[in-house]
Amino acid sequence: MTTMTLYRQLLIWMLVVFFALITSVFVIQFNTTRDFLREQQSTEIDNAISAVGMALAPYLEVNDTISAESVINATFDSSFYSKVHLSMLNESGEIVRSYPTQVAGVPNWFQSVIIIEPITRSTTLTSGWMQLASLTVTSSSIYAYQQLWQASLQLLIGFTATFLLGLLFLAFILSKVLKPLKAIQLRARQMSNNQFGDPLAIPKIRELSDVVVAFNHMSAQLKIHFEQQAQEADNLRIRAYQDPVSGLANRSYLMTQLNSWLTSPSEGGIALLKVDLITDAYALDGYEAGDHLVQTLSVRMKELINDDYTIARLNQCEFMLLAPNITAAELKIIGRSLLHMTSELQSDPLDLAPVQATVGLVMRNHDDNITSLLAQADNALMQAKQQPQEPLALFDVKEQSDTSKQTTMGKQQWKALVDEAIANKLFKFNFQKAIDHHQNTLHQEAFAYIKKGSQHYSAAQFLGAIEQLNAGTHMDMHIIDELFNMLNSDKNVGNIAVNITKSSVNDTGFIRWLANKMQSNPQLKERIIFELPEICFIKHSDNAGLLCEIIHQNNFAFGIDNFGHNFSSIGYLNKFRPAYVKLDFAYTHQIEHQVKADVLASITRTANNLLITTIATRVETISQQEKLTELMVRGFQGYVVDKINSEKTV
């Protein structure tokens, strides 16, 4: 039940009082006018009888009835009289005149409600002591009704105009007086959602000024508390997963990402960089000089980061880059970029000194594990040291069959396949449920793949190439179109989450297209959710903010994928307000370690305070789900929740 606002209650009661006053004045004025018209009618008939009596006497004395009749006709020929009766006393003659009594221009209902009775006056006409005739005159109510009706209309119009002007004036005054209270109400709603703006202006109303001062103080304290909580979560995360000197991921975080990568069907490789220049700086110039080189190199290496790559500092002078879904040629380009970045640290203006670093590259094999992969990286590093001209070596021990060689494609080939799939509607979808801690379905995430003949191509195979070519916009448009059509045609399909690529987030044409799509399908606002990669909020916050604002304006929702992968401050959640965040696998893996559990709890606590659902992905066991629930994770997705649903062909 919706409660009435204070403004509306005050306005209604003030209008009730104002209306009562106006109505009272109207009734008093109406009665005064009616009584005046009645009195006027009585006075008029008395004056008429007196005047006609004197005029008739000379003619009645000589029995001149014709002249007497003329006098009566002349005197009483108006709307003031309804009947005139003159009866001769000395003979049986009489004169009777009747006038119309129908009132023109006055509604019948008004005459029925307002009764104005005619007045009858009788008098005896005499000449000296002799009685000549008896005169009876009955007034007419026509004039009184007409005057009273006109007066009523004027009163009604005047009082209606006064009431409307009073309504506007009272509404303006009340809105002015209650404006500080409205601001307090709005700020209270914002504070309930952990949104803190500038302090409220202090009103001049004494009672409200103290309230506003207290409110501003409370808002400032809550804002500080939230910022401290977010900072605490960031600090815990940094201590657990981030190298304090370089700002890159640490060895623990990298091992988690390697484990996740090796258990997925993804391709790609790793690059191990060893910088002897940093080792020498620590040994010869001290920790400050060594730390400076590490920080300088880290800033340059972060330029390589995208939402798939992970760069970590393993020890004092070794760094590793994990690059899923990448070819050997592309991995070599990255390796050479790392060597070039390292050479920039050297004081060699002539560029003659050899690079004091080596890079070992390893392409993943299908049966690799972490131990074998790191061993191959060390071997590649030793081989690179034997090549002073270009200290870089690539290990690619994967033995490809003829079939796999045929399916290995470059970026342009993947793009051509995607274009063909769009043109021929070869995209199919698998769906995986995400549930809350009460086992209710939050949504189904759509996983697109291409089915061409007997071949299946998962998104993991072609998405990296599409992102590198910034060609994801048309693919996203096609997939969103297909899912919108599916939801419109089948009302029983539950909520669907659809991923949007980084290239689409940075494409203003796509943003306009999506805005039109949402405006054309408002009935789907609670049935489809857009999932954006976290890297967009870090590197392209303006474009991501524009897209999120348009999604909010159309009352749709969005979530953030791979949350926490990029080690940025989680304070941006308060700015963008997603419906949910899907935690990076590193935060929900090996949570039996207390440090990792504390990090996860701090992140979920901050998100929950903002009413943002935290969803853990790749949840594989009941015990893992129960532990995550204890750490305030409110959503789960993975094998323990639901097997990949049966394929749905669009």
From TrEMBL:
Recorded GO MF terms: cyclic-guanylate-specific phosphodiesterase activity
HAMP domain ranges (all copies): 175-227
A biological-process GO annotation: signal transduction
Domain (GGDEF) ranges: 266-397
Organism of derivation: Photobacterium profundum (strain SS9)
Entry-linked Gene3D superfamilies: 3.30.110.200, 3.30.70.270, EAL domain, LapD/MoxY periplasmic domain
Lineage: Bacteria, Pseudomonadati, Pseudomonadota, Gammaproteobacteria, Vibrionales
Signal peptide range: none
Keywords per UniProt: Membrane, Transmembrane, Transmembrane helix
Occurrences of domain EAL (ranges): 411-650
Membrane-spanning segments: 6-28, 151-174
Protein name, per record: GGDEF domain-containing protein
One matching Pfam family: EAL
UniProt cross-references to SUPFAM superfamilies, sorted A to Z: EAL domain-like, Nucleotide cyclase
GO cellular component: membrane
